[in-house]
Amino acid sequence: MIKHIRYNDLGRADHGWLQSRFHFSFADYYNVQRMGFGKLRVINDDLIKPGYGFDLHPHKNMEIISYIRSGVVSHQDSVGNKGQTKAGEIQVMSAGSGILHSEYNSGIEPLTLYQIWIETNKPETQPRWETQKFPIQPVTDDLPLLVSGFAGEQEQALFINQKARIFGGRLQQGAKIKQKITVQAYILASQGRFEISDSEYLQTVSLNQGDGAEVTEIRELTIKALSDCELVLIDLPR
């Protein structure tokens, strides 16, 4: 089944320097119907003004993934990691046994990103932080694998402590690809418009920029670009 989550139905917050849309309950936004999706606990669609960001704050036992859509974010933490992640890159912070970190928009343009939190399957591990670029060439077959918790996939993807995968890529208008689903998936329309369909329930859903979709009980999706677009697909356990 495919459940369409429209951008205008997301939770929201406006702090002036920070504008957020919440796919699930977070901070002052509480919706008993939107408490997470399987091991997925947070997806925040954030816009941060230049020169602003999040002061030093703690996390523990959570896999925190930042997908940078525009701008640049500067990261610094209590275990000595320091660096920048730019548009076209992704970062993973495994909070493990506990970490303090800060994040700022250190560029001259607005920073837009997805902040994704996934529950860990290995608590109290050593905290760590990694970042890498992801392919920007338009996809013609498989979505690039960006993040994985499966052995043997660390050559091509950043590691997390959970049996989940995150794929992401850009499609040119008219492109059509197939995507396997291991258990269930959450899809984000980062840019543009595309449709997803399946042969089991005979559903077709069109997603506009900012939308999301929950995909359950489906083993393969067809994704068709209605315009030049970018999407993120999170394949994860219940």
Mean pLDDT: 95
Helicity level, as a percent range?
A: under 10%
Shape assignment: globular
Query: What is the CATH-assigned architecture?
Result: Sandwich
Which residues form runs of ≥5 with pLDDT under 50?
A: none
Main sheet properties: 7 strands, mixed
Number of DSSP strand runs: 22
Domain count: the total is: 1
Radius of gyration: 17 Å
End-to-end CA span:
15 Å
Query: How is the largest sheet built, in terms of strand order?
Result: 1-20-17-22-15-13-14
CATH superfamily: Jelly Rolls
| Count, helices | 0
Bin the strand percentage.
Answer: over 45%
Oligomer: single chain
According to CATH, the fold-level topology is Jelly Rolls
Reading the helices and strands in chain order gives EEEEEEEEEEEEEEEEEEEEEE
What structural class results from the helix and strand content?
mainly beta
Identify the CATH class.
Mainly Beta
